[in-house]
C-alpha cells in the first residue's frame, strides 16, 4: 500500500519556498510570545499578592509601619487572591468578545497591521500594569481592571490573524501536517513564559520592595 503523496519524501517540502518558512516562523513565535505574556501573570500572582498586602507578610518587628502601609491595597492575602481571580475572569471574557471583533477587523484591514498593533499595544498594557504602576507606587483596583479588559481585547487579535495568515499561505495539500506542527506554538509559549517568569521573578516586585524598606529604615534611623 503506497503512502499518500503528502508523506512521500520531499513531496511536502517541495511545495514551499523560503517565504513559507518565514511566515511559519513569524506566526509561530508571534503567537508563542502572546501566550508567554499570559503565562507570566499566573506565575507572579504570589509576588503580586505579597506586594498588595504587605501587612499580611510582615513577620519582622524591626520594620516600621510606614513600609507596610505605603502600598496597602487589600487587608489580607485572601482578598488579593480573590481579586487576581477576578482579573483572570475579566481577561477571559474580554478575550472571548475580542475574538469575534478581531475576526471582523482582520477581514477588512491588513492582517499584518492588525497583528502588529495588537502585539505592541498588549506589550505596552502589560508594561503599565506590571512596571509603571510599581515605579509610580500607584495602586488602584479599577485601573487594573480597565487595563486587563484592554489587554484581553488586544491579545484577541493574535489568534484570528495568525490563523488567517497561515491559511492564506498554505494550501490544502499538507495543511494538516503544517498546522499540526504550527499548533504547538501555544504550548511553546506557555513553557517559554513560565521559564522567563521563574528566572527573573527574584528581580521583580521584591527588588523594589527591598529598596523601599532600606530607604525607610535609613530615614528612620537618621531621625532618631
From TrEMBL:
Start and end residues of each Major facilitator superfamily (MFS) profile domain: 23-224
Family: Belongs to the major facilitator superfamily. Organophosphate:Pi antiporter (OPA) (TC 2.A.1.4) family.
Keywords, alphabetical: Membrane, Sugar transport, Transmembrane, Transmembrane helix, Transport
Record organism: Pan troglodytes
Compartmental location: Membrane
Recorded GO MF terms: transmembrane transporter activity
Membrane association type: Multi-pass membrane protein
Keyword Calcium tagged: no
Protein name per the record: SLC37A3 isoform 1
Pfam families: MFS_1
Any one annotated GO CC term: membrane
UniProt keyword Transmembrane present: yes
Transmembrane segments: 16-34, 82-105, 111-130, 142-167, 179-205
Amino acid at each position: 500500500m503506497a503512502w499518500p503523496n503528502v508523506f512521500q519524501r520531499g513531496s511536502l517540502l517541495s511545495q514551499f519556498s523560503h517565504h513559507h518558512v518565514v511566515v511559519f516562523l513569524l506566526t509561530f513565535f508571534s503567537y508563542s510570545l502572546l501566550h508567554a505574556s499570559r503565562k507570566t501573570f499566573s506565575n507572579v500572582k504570589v509576588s503580586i499578592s505579597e506586594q498588595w498586602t504587605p501587612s499580611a507578610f510582615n513577620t519582622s518587628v524591626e520594620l516600621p509601619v510606614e513600609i507596610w502601609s505605603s502600598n496597602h491595597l487589600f487587608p489580607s492575602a485572601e482578598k488579593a487572591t480573590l481579586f487576581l481571580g477576578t482579573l483572570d475572569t475579566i481577561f477571559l471574557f474580554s478575550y472571548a468578545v475580542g475574538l469575534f471583533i478581531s475576526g471582523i477587523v482582520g477581514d477588512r484591514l491588513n492582517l499584518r497591521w492588525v497583528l502588529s498593533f495588537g502585539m505592541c499595544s498588549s506589550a505596552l498594557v502589560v508594561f503599565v500594569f506590571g512596571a509603571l504602576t510599581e515605579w509610580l507606587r500607584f495602586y488602584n483596583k479599577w485601573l487594573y481592571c480597565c487595563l486587563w479588559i484592554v489587554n484581553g481585547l488586544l491579545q484577541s487579535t493574535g489568534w484570528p490573524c495568525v490563523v488567517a495568515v497561515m491559511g492564506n499561505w498554505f494550501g490544502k495539500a499538507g495543511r494538516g501536517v503544517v498546522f499540526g506542527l504550527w499548533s504547538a506554538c501555544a504550548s511553546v509559549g506557555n513553557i517559554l513564559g513560565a521559564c522567563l517568569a521563574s528566572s527573573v521573578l527574584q528581580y521583580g516586585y521584591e527588588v523594589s520592595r527591598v529598596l523601599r524598606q532600606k530607604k525607610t529604615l535609613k530615614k528612620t534611623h537618621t531621625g532618631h
